[in-house]
Amino acid sequence: MMQAAVTVLGIETSCDETAAAVLRLDGQGVRILSDHVASQTDEHAAYGGVVPEIAARAHVERIDSLVRLAMRDAGETWGGLSGVAATAGPGLIGGVMVGVMTAKAIAMAAGIPLIAVNHLEGHALSARLGGQPSFPYLLLLVSGGHCQFIAVEGLGKYRRLGSTIDDAAGEAFDKTAKLLGLPAPGGPAVEAEAQQGDPSAVKLPRPLLDRPGLDMSFSGLKTAVRRAAEEAPLTPGRRADICAGFQAAVADILSVKSARAMEMFAAGREGPLSFVVAGGVAANRQLRSQLEATARRYNFTFHCPPLRWCTDNAAMIALAGAERLQAGLVDSLDVGARARWPLDERAAAEAPAYGGGRKGAKA
Ligand code: KG4
Ligand code: ZN
Fold first, then answer.
1. Which of 117, 235, 252, 300 lies in disulfide reach of 320, CB 3.0 to 4.6 Å?
2. Which ligand is nearest to the CA of 17?
3. Ligand 1 pocket, 144 CB below 6 A?
């Protein structure tokens, strides 16, 4: 069936990035008309992590001008929008409220539908900003707050196959950086250090690899990093070796579990198989190349959004909003902001301790 063409403004404020984007979805595919992200890294740097109150205030200060910029760059008028989408959770509640309130005001003033988007659905669909893949696909979502395998059967149809039982992978990168005195955000800092190091110089554990299933664990790895950092003087060379060893351990854990997830996902399915890696940690080059090789081995087509759509952005929220709008899935103006909002509500209810929430500042 031919879907109606839609133009959607997307708003993202769930953590420390204020973002606004305008996107058009029609028979030709996705066209990103504007895409702006204002990061708050500098505001939080002194505290070694994201401070929720500072984040909320920074979103309030920036959101209006960012939305104006996104609209101007897109050459769009309020009347030209088919809908407005905002991240309504999960995330730091103060920030989420800023985005939701802004979107409600625009929806009301412009008389257009509001779409309350789950931030994780944004990440789950982010690869589709490039037009590929079509449903269904296997997703590894690796961000600062989440690490889970999800069978994406269609829009709004997400089945969690496994997840971390403690820290998220991005959280482990961030904590490792902090332990080693590297700047936030930890992922890119650890990756840069790792390039100078020898991954086999410092042996780090690969928790839960010997157990069946798709559960993952990263908190033991963090403890091992602490021990390695204390065992010998932390010279620049030693620090680079620890980063390289840590990155190799994360990549190994995710590759082995991805291979298992692919076997599980492929069972009983016919036709082409696709594997998507999304979320901030997917920006990691070593991880990408290892996962790509794993996908090739299991006959999956590998998809990973370009770097700017791996980390938090509004284009993915606009896309989730546009796909929902085309499917008639819009929200009422009294929809609330949610700190917790698992993608697979049933799996989260059955195993509430796993993956649904987050312990780090990021979600
Ligand atoms: O998706 P994201 O921007 O925010 C959410 O958590 O939703 O992900 C941020 C996480 C942070 O933990 C950051 O350290 C990690 O992604 N990250 C990376 C890299 N770039 C960002 N981790 C490893 N390597 C990277 N290059
Ligand atoms: Zn995110």
1. 117
2. 1
3. yes
Q: How many A from CA of 297 to the centre of ligand 2?
A: 28
**Statement: 136-307 belongs to CATH 3.30.420.40:** yes
Cβ 13 under 6 angstroms from ligand 1: no
Tell me the pLDDT of the chain (363 aa) as tens digits.
Answer: 567 899 999 999 999 899 999 999 999 999 999 999 998 888 888 777 788 888 899 999 999 999 999 999 999 999 999 999 999 999 999 999 999 999 999 999 999 999 999 999 999 999 999 989 999 999 999 999 889 999 999 999 999 999 999 999 999 999 999 999 998 889 999 999 999 999 999 999 998 888 889 999 999 999 999 999 999 999 999 999 999 999 999 999 999 999 999 999 999 999 899 999 999 999 999 999 999 999 999 999 999 998 899 999 999 999 999 999 999 999 999 999 999 999 988 888 877 655 444 433 443
Q: Does the C-beta of 321 come closer than 6 Å to ligand 1?
A: no
Q: How far is the CA of 227 from the centre of ligand 2 (A)?
A: 30
Ligand having the closest approach to the CA of 147: 1
Please give the C-alpha separations between residue 41 and each of 15, 47, 87, in angstroms, as whole numbers.
11, 10, 20
Q: Name the pTM for this structure.
A: 0.92
- The class (CATH top level) of 6-128+309-350 is alpha beta
Residue of minimum CA distance from atom 6 in ligand 1: 144
91 lines ligand 1 (CB under 6 A): no
Backbone angles phi, psi at 161, to 5 degrees: -95, -25
Q: Is 250 in the pocket of ligand 1 (CB under 6 A)?
A: no
Q: Is 184 helix (H, G, I), strand (E, B) or coil?
A: coil
Domain ranges of the chain: 6-128+309-350, 136-307
229-246 b/e with 16+ CB inside 10 Å = b?
beeeeeeeebbbbbbbbb
